[in-house]
Design brief:
This protein has helices at residues 16-28, 57-72, 113-122, 131-134, 143-150, 165-181, 199-214, 218-227, 235-244, 257-261, and strands at 2-3, 48-52, 79-85, 94-96, 101-104, 107-110, 126-128, 155-160, 185-190, 195-197, 249-256, 267-275. Strands 2, 3, 4, 7, 8, 9, 10, 11 and 12 form a nine-stranded mixed beta sheet that branches. It has 276 residues and is α/β, with parallel strands linked by helices. Helix 8 packs antiparallel against helix 9.
């Protein structure tokens, strides 16, 4: 099973040379870390988590680069578990791509079939669904960053149409089994924060979410989303990451699309965080 890129040429450049330059601009830009990542060549020994945004690189690439910049210092993993929301509505509640490879303009990355097998055997809700992923962008946009920094590390893609607390708890427990077998793993939760409100409103709502992440409070996160009507799209993956308790969160960068475009009337919030 080979997945062709769905948003190359839209969310990021289709040409490999242009794509590498765009990623480097993300690291070197005013909202980025300011330098290119230096990879720790030793093997990642313990699981690490990151939260990463998934808009077009022009808007969220600089924020996303912070997570990969810090991740490079930790060592090279054997596996990236990618958890993101299903924006398309196609597929199943919890869709797993269990074999084959995903292509981007930078080459192909293989699916970690053993990790997929363990997850599918351990989860009540997860099932194989290629339709869940074929047109979805939230995981695809992470892969060129992974390839740029680490090369072609195997992945386990998880697409969430159902982001309920029961799914969060189920996936958290199932992924702990994956980490027992493959401790050299990065768990990446793909999400944007509040959508299409003015800069101040979005900043205020985002800060409520960030506080819950810092407190590692999954139920508090869901309460904030409901009470304050925060239109965060990938809260399920973040909930899984919080519930797994991989490590303490460090917020690396928070910004909005308005910080890039200058249009602060309808912005989207982005953040990058690492759990070590």
């Amino acid at each position: 099973m080979k997945r062709e890129p769905a948003v190359a040429g839209l969310f990021y450049p289709f040409d490999p040379t242009s794509l590498k330059k765009e990623i480097e601009i993300s690291f070197l830009g005013d909202l980025g870390p300011g330098s290119l990542p230096k990879v720790n060549k030793s093997k990642l020994e313990k699981p690490v988590g990151i939260i990463s945004p998934h808009a077009g690189y022009m808007y969220s690439g600089q924020v996303a680069s912070w997570g990969f910049y810090e991740l490079a210092k930790q060592g090279t993993p054997d596996l990236f578990v990618l958890i993101g929301p299903n924006h398309t509505g196609f597929g199943v509640r919890v869709g797993i791509w269990d074999k084959g490879e995903w292509e981007t303009p930078l080459g192909a990355v293989s699916i970690h079939e053993e990790a997929a097998r363990i997850l599918l055997e351990s989860s009540k809700h997860a099932s194989v669904s290629y339709e869940s992923h074929t047109r979805e962008h939230s995981l695809e946009v992470q892969i060129p960053f992974i390839q740029y920094v680490f090369g072609n590390v195997p992945i386990l893609p998880i697409s969430l149409l159902d982001q309920s607390l029961s799914v969060v708890k189920d996936l958290s427990e199932a992924l702990k089994k994956v980490l027992e077998a493959i401790p050299s793993t990065v768990v990446l939760a793909s999400t944007d924060l509040n959508h299409y409100e003015d800069q101040q409103t979005t900043t205020n709502k985002d800060n409520l979410v960030i506080r819950m992440i810092e407190d590692m409070d999954v139920k508090g996160l869901y309460k904030v989303l409901e009470e304050y009507e925060v239109s965060m799209c990938g809260y399920g993956g973040v909930g899984v990451l919080l519930d797994m308790k991989i490590g303490k969160p460090k917020i690396l960068k928070h910004a909005t699309s308005g910080d890039v475009s200058g249009d602060r009337l309808e912005v989207v919030g982005y953040m990058s965080a690492i759990f070590v």
